[in-house]
Design brief:
- By secondary structure, the chain is of the alpha/beta class.
- It is built from 13 helices and 10 strands.
- It has a single domain (about 5-320), classed as TIM Barrel.
- It has helices spanning about 5-10, 15-25, 35-45, 60-65, 65-85, 105-110, 125-140, 170-180, 210-220, 235-245, 255-265, 275-290, 295-320, and strands spanning about 25-30, 50-55, 95-100, 115-120, 145-150, 155-160, 160-165, 185-190, 225, 265-270.
- Helix 7 links the parallel strand 4 and strand 5.
- The protein is globular, with a radius of gyration of 19 Å.
Protein backbone atom coordinates (compact mmCIF):
# COMPACT_ATOMS: atom_id res chain seq x y z
CA UNK A 1 0.00 0.00 0.00
CA UNK A 2 1.35 3.41 -1.00
CA UNK A 3 2.13 5.92 1.75
CA UNK A 4 1.50 9.61 1.06
CA UNK A 5 4.27 12.01 2.00
CA UNK A 6 1.60 14.43 3.16
CA UNK A 7 0.60 12.02 5.93
CA UNK A 8 4.25 11.99 7.05
CA UNK A 9 4.48 15.78 7.30
CA UNK A 10 6.63 16.44 4.23
CA UNK A 11 6.05 18.93 1.42
CA UNK A 12 7.05 18.70 -2.22
CA UNK A 13 9.48 21.18 -3.75
CA UNK A 14 7.08 23.20 -5.93
CA UNK A 15 6.30 26.03 -3.50
CA UNK A 16 9.84 25.91 -2.09
CA UNK A 17 11.35 26.61 -5.50
CA UNK A 18 8.84 29.28 -6.48
CA UNK A 19 9.63 31.27 -3.34
CA UNK A 20 13.39 30.75 -3.69
CA UNK A 21 13.45 32.03 -7.28
CA UNK A 22 11.31 35.02 -6.38
CA UNK A 23 13.57 36.00 -3.46
CA UNK A 24 17.01 35.10 -4.86
CA UNK A 25 18.23 32.22 -2.73
CA UNK A 26 18.70 28.46 -3.01
CA UNK A 27 17.11 25.77 -0.85
CA UNK A 28 19.76 23.54 0.78
CA UNK A 29 19.65 19.88 -0.21
CA UNK A 30 21.66 17.91 2.34
CA UNK A 31 22.32 14.17 2.16
CA UNK A 32 22.07 11.97 5.22
CA UNK A 33 22.87 8.35 6.06
CA UNK A 34 22.50 8.18 9.84
CA UNK A 35 20.83 9.72 12.87
CA UNK A 36 23.57 12.22 13.73
CA UNK A 37 23.58 13.70 10.24
CA UNK A 38 19.81 14.02 10.27
CA UNK A 39 19.79 15.71 13.67
CA UNK A 40 22.42 18.20 12.51
CA UNK A 41 20.51 19.05 9.34
CA UNK A 42 17.17 19.58 11.05
CA UNK A 43 18.51 21.58 13.99
CA UNK A 44 20.70 23.77 11.74
CA UNK A 45 17.85 24.57 9.37
CA UNK A 46 15.32 25.13 12.14
CA UNK A 47 17.62 27.50 14.03
CA UNK A 48 18.42 29.45 10.86
CA UNK A 49 14.75 29.29 9.81
CA UNK A 50 15.62 27.76 6.45
CA UNK A 51 13.56 25.37 4.34
CA UNK A 52 15.41 22.13 3.67
CA UNK A 53 15.45 19.12 1.38
CA UNK A 54 16.53 15.87 3.04
CA UNK A 55 18.26 13.76 0.42
CA UNK A 56 18.58 9.99 0.37
CA UNK A 57 20.73 8.39 -2.31
CA UNK A 58 20.46 4.83 -3.56
CA UNK A 59 23.74 4.20 -1.73
CA UNK A 60 22.21 5.45 1.51
CA UNK A 61 19.24 3.12 1.05
CA UNK A 62 21.62 0.20 0.68
CA UNK A 63 23.65 1.27 3.71
CA UNK A 64 20.93 2.05 6.22
CA UNK A 65 17.87 0.12 4.92
CA UNK A 66 15.24 1.95 2.90
CA UNK A 67 12.44 1.52 5.45
CA UNK A 68 14.59 2.73 8.35
CA UNK A 69 15.62 5.87 6.46
CA UNK A 70 12.00 6.68 5.62
CA UNK A 71 11.01 6.43 9.28
CA UNK A 72 14.07 8.50 10.24
CA UNK A 73 12.86 11.16 7.84
CA UNK A 74 9.40 11.05 9.39
CA UNK A 75 11.01 11.31 12.82
CA UNK A 76 12.90 14.37 11.63
CA UNK A 77 9.61 16.15 11.00
CA UNK A 78 8.39 15.33 14.50
CA UNK A 79 11.74 16.44 15.94
CA UNK A 80 11.49 19.74 14.06
CA UNK A 81 7.96 20.39 15.36
CA UNK A 82 8.96 19.67 18.95
CA UNK A 83 12.06 21.87 18.76
CA UNK A 84 10.12 24.67 17.10
CA UNK A 85 7.57 24.62 19.91
CA UNK A 86 10.24 24.55 22.61
CA UNK A 87 12.31 27.36 21.07
CA UNK A 88 9.41 29.54 19.95
CA UNK A 89 10.37 29.22 16.28
CA UNK A 90 8.27 28.81 13.17
CA UNK A 91 8.06 25.30 11.76
CA UNK A 92 10.10 24.85 8.60
CA UNK A 93 9.08 23.07 5.37
CA UNK A 94 10.91 19.77 4.84
CA UNK A 95 10.97 17.75 1.62
CA UNK A 96 12.17 14.14 1.39
CA UNK A 97 14.00 13.62 -1.89
CA UNK A 98 15.54 10.69 -3.75
CA UNK A 99 18.98 11.76 -4.97
CA UNK A 100 20.23 10.25 -8.25
CA UNK A 101 17.57 7.66 -8.82
CA UNK A 102 18.72 5.70 -11.85
CA UNK A 103 15.69 3.53 -12.65
CA UNK A 104 11.94 3.93 -12.92
CA UNK A 105 11.51 1.11 -10.41
CA UNK A 106 13.59 2.89 -7.76
CA UNK A 107 11.66 6.14 -8.22
CA UNK A 108 8.35 4.26 -8.05
CA UNK A 109 9.40 2.54 -4.81
CA UNK A 110 10.34 5.86 -3.20
CA UNK A 111 7.14 7.58 -4.31
CA UNK A 112 5.06 4.76 -2.83
CA UNK A 113 6.99 4.81 0.43
CA UNK A 114 6.44 8.50 1.20
CA UNK A 115 9.06 10.53 -0.66
CA UNK A 116 7.77 13.95 -1.71
CA UNK A 117 10.30 14.44 -4.51
CA UNK A 118 12.44 12.17 -6.68
CA UNK A 119 15.31 12.63 -9.08
CA UNK A 120 15.57 10.43 -12.14
CA UNK A 121 19.09 10.67 -13.50
CA UNK A 122 19.08 9.65 -17.14
CA UNK A 123 22.01 11.91 -17.99
CA UNK A 124 24.14 8.91 -18.99
CA UNK A 125 21.61 7.93 -21.66
CA UNK A 126 21.25 9.28 -25.21
CA UNK A 127 19.13 12.43 -25.25
CA UNK A 128 15.88 10.85 -26.49
CA UNK A 129 16.19 7.92 -24.06
CA UNK A 130 16.74 10.36 -21.21
CA UNK A 131 13.54 12.16 -22.22
CA UNK A 132 11.58 8.90 -22.38
CA UNK A 133 12.76 7.67 -18.96
CA UNK A 134 12.23 11.03 -17.28
CA UNK A 135 8.75 11.36 -18.79
CA UNK A 136 7.85 7.88 -17.51
CA UNK A 137 8.77 8.89 -13.96
CA UNK A 138 6.93 12.22 -14.24
CA UNK A 139 3.76 10.54 -15.45
CA UNK A 140 3.84 8.17 -12.48
CA UNK A 141 4.82 10.79 -9.88
CA UNK A 142 2.48 13.67 -10.67
CA UNK A 143 -0.79 11.88 -9.79
CA UNK A 144 0.73 11.50 -6.29
CA UNK A 145 1.65 15.24 -6.35
CA UNK A 146 5.33 14.23 -6.11
CA UNK A 147 7.77 16.57 -7.87
CA UNK A 148 10.46 15.25 -10.22
CA UNK A 149 13.99 16.44 -10.95
CA UNK A 150 15.71 15.47 -14.21
CA UNK A 151 19.28 15.98 -15.37
CA UNK A 152 21.04 17.08 -18.55
CA UNK A 153 24.83 16.96 -18.79
CA UNK A 154 27.24 14.84 -16.79
CA UNK A 155 29.17 15.80 -13.65
CA UNK A 156 32.65 14.37 -13.18
CA UNK A 157 33.71 12.81 -9.89
CA UNK A 158 32.47 10.06 -7.60
CA UNK A 159 29.56 10.06 -5.14
CA UNK A 160 28.12 6.76 -3.90
CA UNK A 161 27.04 4.84 -7.02
CA UNK A 162 27.44 7.84 -9.36
CA UNK A 163 30.76 8.30 -11.12
CA UNK A 164 32.16 9.87 -14.28
CA UNK A 165 35.69 10.74 -15.37
CA UNK A 166 34.90 13.86 -17.39
CA UNK A 167 32.42 16.72 -17.46
CA UNK A 168 29.85 16.95 -20.22
CA UNK A 169 28.44 20.45 -19.97
CA UNK A 170 24.71 20.88 -20.38
CA UNK A 171 23.89 22.11 -23.87
CA UNK A 172 21.58 25.13 -23.58
CA UNK A 173 19.98 24.38 -26.94
CA UNK A 174 18.60 21.08 -25.54
CA UNK A 175 17.00 22.27 -22.32
CA UNK A 176 13.72 23.59 -23.72
CA UNK A 177 13.01 20.40 -25.65
CA UNK A 178 13.87 18.31 -22.58
CA UNK A 179 11.65 20.28 -20.20
CA UNK A 180 8.71 20.38 -22.60
CA UNK A 181 9.12 16.72 -23.59
CA UNK A 182 9.24 15.40 -20.03
CA UNK A 183 7.03 17.68 -17.93
CA UNK A 184 9.77 17.64 -15.29
CA UNK A 185 9.54 20.09 -12.36
CA UNK A 186 13.23 20.99 -12.02
CA UNK A 187 16.41 20.44 -13.98
CA UNK A 188 19.89 19.58 -12.73
CA UNK A 189 22.55 21.01 -15.02
CA UNK A 190 26.29 20.51 -15.47
CA UNK A 191 28.25 23.77 -15.47
CA UNK A 192 31.51 22.69 -13.84
CA UNK A 193 30.46 21.47 -10.42
CA UNK A 194 31.42 17.88 -9.69
CA UNK A 195 30.92 15.11 -7.18
CA UNK A 196 33.33 14.31 -4.38
CA UNK A 197 36.14 16.25 -2.70
CA UNK A 198 38.49 16.43 -5.71
CA UNK A 199 36.75 18.86 -8.05
CA UNK A 200 39.80 20.80 -9.24
CA UNK A 201 43.56 20.32 -9.20
CA UNK A 202 45.58 22.73 -7.05
CA UNK A 203 46.50 25.78 -9.14
CA UNK A 204 43.81 25.02 -11.67
CA UNK A 205 41.28 27.78 -12.29
CA UNK A 206 38.46 27.10 -9.86
CA UNK A 207 35.25 28.36 -11.36
CA UNK A 208 31.92 27.25 -12.70
CA UNK A 209 30.41 28.20 -16.06
CA UNK A 210 27.97 30.90 -15.06
CA UNK A 211 27.77 31.86 -18.73
CA UNK A 212 26.12 28.49 -19.51
CA UNK A 213 23.73 29.03 -16.61
CA UNK A 214 22.77 32.46 -17.99
CA UNK A 215 22.10 30.99 -21.44
CA UNK A 216 19.96 28.21 -19.95
CA UNK A 217 17.93 30.80 -18.02
CA UNK A 218 17.20 32.57 -21.29
CA UNK A 219 15.98 29.34 -22.87
CA UNK A 220 13.70 28.31 -19.98
CA UNK A 221 12.95 31.53 -18.06
CA UNK A 222 11.50 31.07 -14.61
CA UNK A 223 12.22 27.34 -14.53
CA UNK A 224 13.75 25.73 -11.45
CA UNK A 225 17.46 24.88 -11.87
CA UNK A 226 19.48 22.56 -9.61
CA UNK A 227 23.23 22.33 -8.98
CA UNK A 228 24.72 19.02 -7.88
CA UNK A 229 28.29 18.54 -6.65
CA UNK A 230 28.43 21.94 -4.96
CA UNK A 231 30.64 21.30 -1.95
CA UNK A 232 33.40 23.85 -1.42
CA UNK A 233 35.81 21.46 0.37
CA UNK A 234 36.85 23.94 3.11
CA UNK A 235 40.66 23.85 3.43
CA UNK A 236 40.45 24.12 7.22
CA UNK A 237 38.53 20.82 7.35
CA UNK A 238 41.01 19.15 5.01
CA UNK A 239 43.84 20.37 7.26
CA UNK A 240 42.21 18.98 10.41
CA UNK A 241 41.77 15.61 8.72
CA UNK A 242 45.35 15.51 7.46
CA UNK A 243 46.78 16.76 10.78
CA UNK A 244 45.05 13.89 12.52
CA UNK A 245 46.14 11.00 10.33
CA UNK A 246 44.18 11.56 7.13
CA UNK A 247 45.51 11.65 3.58
CA UNK A 248 43.32 14.06 1.64
CA UNK A 249 45.92 15.55 -0.64
CA UNK A 250 44.86 17.98 -3.37
CA UNK A 251 41.19 18.16 -2.35
CA UNK A 252 39.71 21.34 -3.87
CA UNK A 253 36.06 22.39 -4.22
CA UNK A 254 33.71 25.00 -5.67
CA UNK A 255 34.33 28.62 -4.60
CA UNK A 256 31.51 29.79 -2.33
CA UNK A 257 31.19 33.22 -4.04
CA UNK A 258 30.30 31.40 -7.28
CA UNK A 259 27.59 29.45 -5.48
CA UNK A 260 26.18 32.64 -3.95
CA UNK A 261 25.97 34.19 -7.42
CA UNK A 262 24.22 31.09 -8.75
CA UNK A 263 21.78 31.10 -5.83
CA UNK A 264 20.61 34.58 -6.82
CA UNK A 265 19.58 33.28 -10.24
CA UNK A 266 17.15 30.52 -11.24
CA UNK A 267 19.26 28.05 -9.25
CA UNK A 268 16.87 27.30 -6.40
CA UNK A 269 18.33 24.02 -5.09
CA UNK A 270 21.99 23.38 -4.30
CA UNK A 271 23.19 19.92 -3.27
CA UNK A 272 25.90 19.66 -0.62
CA UNK A 273 27.19 16.28 0.52
CA UNK A 274 31.01 16.09 0.57
CA UNK A 275 31.41 19.13 2.84
CA UNK A 276 29.26 17.38 5.42
CA UNK A 277 31.34 14.23 5.16
CA UNK A 278 34.50 16.27 5.66
CA UNK A 279 33.10 18.02 8.74
CA UNK A 280 32.12 14.71 10.34
CA UNK A 281 35.43 13.04 9.50
CA UNK A 282 37.48 15.99 10.75
CA UNK A 283 35.67 16.06 14.10
CA UNK A 284 35.92 12.30 14.61
CA UNK A 285 39.61 12.13 13.66
CA UNK A 286 40.45 15.05 15.94
CA UNK A 287 38.59 13.55 18.90
CA UNK A 288 40.12 10.10 18.53
CA UNK A 289 43.60 11.50 17.98
CA UNK A 290 43.38 13.69 21.08
CA UNK A 291 41.70 10.96 23.16
CA UNK A 292 43.10 7.64 21.88
CA UNK A 293 41.61 5.67 24.78
CA UNK A 294 38.05 6.79 23.94
CA UNK A 295 35.71 4.04 22.74
CA UNK A 296 32.24 5.45 23.46
CA UNK A 297 30.71 6.35 20.04
CA UNK A 298 28.71 9.15 21.67
CA UNK A 299 31.94 10.90 22.63
CA UNK A 300 33.09 11.26 19.02
CA UNK A 301 29.77 11.25 17.17
CA UNK A 302 28.50 14.07 19.41
CA UNK A 303 31.26 16.52 18.38
CA UNK A 304 30.82 15.39 14.77
CA UNK A 305 27.12 16.21 14.92
CA UNK A 306 27.84 19.66 16.36
CA UNK A 307 30.50 20.40 13.72
CA UNK A 308 28.07 19.40 10.99
CA UNK A 309 25.35 21.62 12.42
CA UNK A 310 27.71 24.62 12.51
CA UNK A 311 28.74 23.98 8.89
CA UNK A 312 25.14 23.83 7.68
CA UNK A 313 24.13 26.96 9.61
CA UNK A 314 26.95 28.89 7.96
CA UNK A 315 26.04 27.53 4.51
CA UNK A 316 22.43 28.63 4.94
CA UNK A 317 23.42 32.12 6.09
CA UNK A 318 26.43 32.93 3.92
CA UNK A 319 26.31 30.75 0.80
CA UNK A 320 22.76 29.72 -0.07
CA UNK A 321 20.98 32.75 1.37
CA UNK A 322 18.21 30.50 2.70
CA UNK A 323 18.34 31.65 6.32
CA UNK A 324 15.27 33.48 7.64
CA UNK A 325 13.18 32.60 4.58
CA UNK A 326 10.41 30.69 6.38
Amino acid sequence: MAVSYKDLGFVNTRAMFKKAMAEGYAVPAYNFNNMEQLQAIVSACLETQSPVILQISSGARKYADKTLLRYMGQGAVEMMKRMASEKGLKEIPIALHLDHGDTFELCKSCIESGFSSVMIDGSHLPFNENIALTKQVVEYAHPFDVTVEGELGILAGVEDDVSAEQHTYTRPEEVQEFVEGTGVDSLAIAIGTSHGAYKFKPGQEQTIRLDILEEIEKRIPGFAIVLHGSSSVPPELVKIINDNGGRLQDAVGIPEPDLRKAAKSAVCKINIDSDGRLAVTAAIRKTLNEKPSEFDPRKYLGPAREALKELFMRKNKEVLGSANRV
